[in-house]
Design goal:
Blueprint: H1 3-25, E1 29-33, H2 34-39, H3 41-57, E2 64-67, H4 74-83, H5 110-116, H6 120-124, H7 131-145, H8 161-168, H9 176-180, H10 184-200, H11 212-215, H12 229-233, H13 236-258, E3 263-266, H14 273-295, E4 316-321, H15 328-354, E5 356-358, E6 361-363, H16 365-375, H17 379-397, E7 401-406, E8 410-417, E9 424-431, E10 440-445, E11 464-470, E12 472-475
Parallel strand pairs: 1-2, 1-10, 3-10
Antiparallel strand pairs: 3-12, 4-9, 4-11, 5-6, 7-8, 8-9
Helix pairs in contact: 1-3, 1-15, 3-7, 3-15, 10-13, 10-14, 13-14, 16-17
């Protein structure tokens, strides 16, 4: 792995850290879909770190909740995914365990890998998985084993991925007034997506049964010329856009199957604006497409979306010392300082959350603030209570970070890190008050739209420059805007 790849991985992990920190700060639990819990390296790394912090600060707190679909336990879900690793008809391409796809590329015997992946315990004790991945999976398995699953409120008539994609390329999917009401940039991305998806033809049997096919450089099902997905759509950039769109549709399906909480939809972190904006448009179009197919809503993206300069609209941002970083080691040290701050901040928040009161024990100011927020009867009262609660959160974070309101109903959380390399900041912003109506916030839907208002207060941090950022917002896929 190159230094740049390691830095991008660190930035993605920071994004998840801040997202979890934001959820905990609002008194919510983090709902994790089963595929994300099993196959996200970023989440598993974070979960292991958070659970260790929990064990030293508040042993009875359980910040993560598992959402299961078609499975009775996390282990059942993992076994189901593993069983498809060698299934040609319904392939599962694992980002956590790429060795499953082509073992010989990693010097492994395919027969041994296949046998080991038939059982989770057998997999965790295999030689090739390594200590880090094995322990992370074992830790999250142990956590979910003793917790009830999330009680979901699934839609009455759920749609499949293939059905949604077939409706995407239908002539009537974007016509007339709906098309004219969209910015030119949206129409351009939509045209590119429709053209590429038509070439892949979701109406053919097996074509889009599984997203993994798009990531495997093997012949696309039923293609007479035996071409790969990239060859069919014409370029890697176009394929990446299709993957963003398809992943977003899939994640909308997952979020809707949970039904009790909005989900954070966010792009991957990026170093430039152009690719990020195109991804955001593709993802926003997918959310609108899902809503129109599943809930008969008008086919229009979120009306507050803008595709202007994303410099003004990051949902997540990493800022480092503005002076030229002399070495990659210094950059990674800055990111490490931020990650250390995140661990300490989460431990402090979990300690405050553990003090719920009752049985002669005092209720913490953290929960008293949320009680006041829940009792607020109008927008002014909500804002005042939220402002007070975030001031309490900031005091809990201490020198590790800050929290506060941005604009009318934007909640911002900052992590700060220092050291010899200079200032480093990671920040996130969510729009409220819609999310205050729910007891949990789902994460792991790696897909998004553009936030109306970006992180503002970090502009006052002198001596920093933006390292990377992502766009996004909190979405209820059933159509109720936050």
């Amino acid at each position: 792995m190159s230094d740049l790849e390691r830095q991008r991985r660190d930035e993605l992990e920071l994004q998840i850290f801040v997202e979890v920190l934001m959820t905990l700060a609002l008194g919510r639990d983090v709902v994790v879909p089963q595929s994300y819990a099993f196959d996200s390296t970023g989440f598993l790394t974070l979960a292991r770190t958070v659970l260790r912090a929990r064990n030293r600060a508040a042993i009875d707190e359980h910040p993560f909740r598992i959402h299961l679909f078609g499975a009775d336990s996390f282990e059942d879900a993992a076994a189901s995914m593993l069983s498809r690793a060698f299934d040609k008809n319904r392939p599962f391409f694992s980002s956590l365990l790429p060795e499953l796809h082509k073992p010989e590329q990693y010097g492994l015997d395919p027969r041994d890998v296949r046998w080991q992946s038939e059982n989770l315990d057998r997999l965790l004790n295999s030689d090739w998985i390594g200590v880090e991945r094995a322990q992370a999976l074992n830790d999250i398995r142990a956590e979910f084993r003793g917790l009830p699953r999330v009680r979901a409120k699934a839609p009455a008539a759920p749609l499949g991925l293939g059905e949604l994609l077939a409706s995407t390329i239908a002539e009537e999917s974007l016509t007339g007034r709906a098309e004219q009401s969209l910015p030119e940039s949206f129409r351009e991305v939509h045209a590119d997506l429709v053209s590429a998806i038509r070439r892949l033809d979701p109406t053919r049997p097996r074509a889009f049964n599984e997203r993994s096919r798009l990531r495997i450089a093997e012949p696309w099902p039923n293609d007479s010329d035996g071409r790969t997905p990239e060859e069919i759509v014409g370029s890697k950039d176009t394929l990446d856009l299709v993957i963003e769109f398809v992943d977003t549709l899939y994640n909308a399906i997952v979020a809707d199957s949970i039904g009790i909480a909005p989900a954070t939809f966010s792009t991957d972190v990026a170093l430039g604006d152009r690719i990020l904006i195109s991804r955001a448009i593709a993802q926003e179009l997918a959310i609108a497409q899902y809503r129109s197919g599943a809930h008969q809503a008008a086919w229009l993206p979120h009306e507050g979306v803008s595709t202007g300069e994303s410099e003004e609209q990051p949902l997540f941002e990493v800022r480092l010392n503005s002076q030229a970083v002399a070495t990659e080691t210094q950059t990674r040290r800055q990111l490490s300082n931020l990650r250390d701050s995140a661990v300490d901040a989460i431990a402090a928040l979990l300690d405050a959350r553990a003090q719920r009161g009752g049985q002669g024990r005092a209720r913490s100011p953290f929960w008293k603030g949320l009680d006041k927020l829940a009792a607020a009867e109008d927008a002014t009262a909500v804002r005042n209570a939220l402002d007070d609660h975030l001031a309490c959160v900031a005091s809990i974070l201490g020198g590790r970070g800050e929290a506060g309101l941005v604009g009318k109903f934007g909640v911002q959380v900052l992590l700060t890190g220092g050291g010899a390399a200079g200032p480093a900041i990671a920040a996130a912003l969510w729009q409220v008050p819609g999310i205050l109506e729910f007891p949990a916030t789902a994460i792991g839907a790696v897909a998004p739209a553009v936030a109306k208002k970006g992180v503002e207060s970090i502009r006052r941090w002198q001596g920093t420059r933006r390292r990377a950022h992502a766009l996004g917002r909190v979405v209820d896929v059933r159509g109720h805007q936050p």
